[in-house]
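#random but structural
TW: two for the price of one
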Amino acid sequence: MKNTNTKTLTRVALLVAIEVVMKLVGLGSVPMGPLYMSFLTLPIAVGAITMGPAVGALLGGVFGAVSFYDAITGASAMTGALFQVSPLNTFILCVGMRVLMGLCCGLIFKGLQKLDKSRTWSYIVSAMTAPALNTLFFMGYIVLAFYGCDYVQNLVSVKGAANPFMFVVLLVGVQGVAEFLPISSSGHLSIAQNLLNIDTAVPEFFDVLLHLGTLGAVFVAYWQDIKDMIAEFFRGIGDLAHRSTPKPLPPARRLILLIILGTLPLFAVLPIRKAVQGLGDNMVFVGAALIVTGFLLFLCDRVRKGHKTERSATWLDALLVGVGQAVATLPGVSRSGMTITAGCFVGYERRFAVRFSFLLSIPAVLGANILSIKDAVQAGIVGAEVPMYLVGVAVAAVTGYLCIRLLKYIADKGRFGAFAYYCWAVGILTLVLQAVK
């Protein structure tokens, strides 16, 4: 065991040394105007593929530290200018995005390896994702955090490349991911607005369409369940007309009733909806809520596996999960995280807990849109922006669907703990940043 650890540490140290040497001798990047084409992603890809996502994240952090040093000293024209605008956002841009890139590269390889029996193309594809993700995350965060600053706007005007579609794809992609993963989309948007000074506001009509896009992802992922429930709904009306009820109730009909019961607690939130939304400006509350979400996800992995499905879940079970959904209207509390955890606590089979969570979101999202659509129409619709809206809906639907598939996989493995650590890290960082603000 000690020999293995020594070998791993030696390999990591060697890759770190390669990164540093490449930077010092000028082989780390090639200048291309204000940007650089970087080769430092190569050792990151090697480490992520051969030693795992954690090593990829570590090597990405080294790359980020070098990049942030260039920003501080002004060695990089772009990051140096952005550092003058916001040191915090520049640190996240240089370090955070590179850590995320290395982590994702390793995770992608682990996922592809299970599909690649020959173990050849998974290495090629994963290696190619490192520079691609580096560009996506780096440029994406520039658009989100710095798009309105004079330096970036000057570049945009000089290049003649003002493209609102890029902003839509990035912002909506982030929102689509955070919407379905158990990390609280509302909490992240509050942090972006209040601590990072990123303008995440979108037109009200666009916001309605985005939620319909994420709702479309649920319909695609669970179409068979939805189709069965629709058919059973009309059969139920026919049974009522004939005053007959099959015993036991068909599973799809029981599922409809469970969803109705799970939705009822949301009505208790309606009278205080504005007050709940206002808590999004309280960063101490949001940070604490993310930490609590992390503890719930941590406990979810450790609760005894249940076996209840729509055939055996009780009405009280559905009501308790619905209470969890109502609590999740608080900024910083994840809706999917809270409902999946509540489902596991009442004894749901893990896959059913995920499935019920997303099916339960359908009336919640539809209800929220109905409440917002009047204001959205009154705010007006700009015809020239409709194509951009459609791109946003498509991106929200695709990213949402991919996240649902990911959660299905995680539910099978029982590993929500990774999201717990993420929520703890973001929650603690939020409290620290608010304290020093």
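TW: number two ↓
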Amino acid sequence: MATYTDEALGDCQVGPEKGTVSFSAGLHNWAFTLTVFATMYAKKFGVEIDKMMEKLWGDNFFDPKTKKWTKKHTGEKTCQRAFVQFIYEPIRRVIDAAMNDNKEKLWPMLEKLGVKAKLKPADFDLMGKPLMKRVMQTWLPADVALLEMIIYHLPSPATAQKYRADTLYEGPLDDKYAEAIRNCDSDGPLMLYISKMIPTADKGRFLAFGRVFAGTVQTGQKVSFFSFTQLRKYFSCYVGNSTDGVFCFRFVSSAPTTSPARRRISTSSPSSAPCCAWAAARIPSTPCPRVTPSRASDWTSTSPRTPPSPAKRSSRRTPSRR
């Protein structure tokens, strides 16, 4: 990553001790960052979470017999690397107990971890690999690890668009549209990038999944979208709110836009099909919950570093198909 370092991006290096790396089993849909275990052990050792994260990675060893931390292995059998002792071994013991159907050993461990109470009644009848998958997904859900890194380590739109505007916008970089994108201006001209169009049962109507880079989408607003369209609103979307970016378009004319700005936002190819399907499914009921403030300028992250709570899950085992 050092090869592509850019001053505008800041420090791009990632490290487990910073919480910017997750360890995952993608096939079984569970993952974790060091934050999860640092939060668990910080109180026990009486240290800050950030300090505990540093101890859980690298050349840090702990001997439970002497209760001392060292930077080198002491040669004692009881001395182990912190990552192995506090993270790898607990995970291994839980997986082994679940795979071998050793529930007499498994349930007490899950109770200490606070996982047993989160299991559903039907989960207690599972055996072998299905039991292991359900236990690990409940204990270390992949969505929580991903959401944690997004919240704490990805820059807000107000910050990121200052240096992304030059690559996002294909027009003159000194016009009002480029400035609106660069400043993440919700009062500026609307600049909306649609990454996915989902046809509906009504002929000529689509659900559009997109991201607002500048301006505000409003009811009845006419926009330039390859052809002239009339926007039908389910809810407003402010600058920077990508999760709320689901709109319904009805084509009323194929005439080209009359807007003086005919420049486009640079094309990208995100893999947005799973989240588009989920968002489209939410349309008929209630608006998607916001994960950002209504305006990007209000974006702050002042809360202590703790993993976000897992969202209520669907009954399906493969969330990517939602």
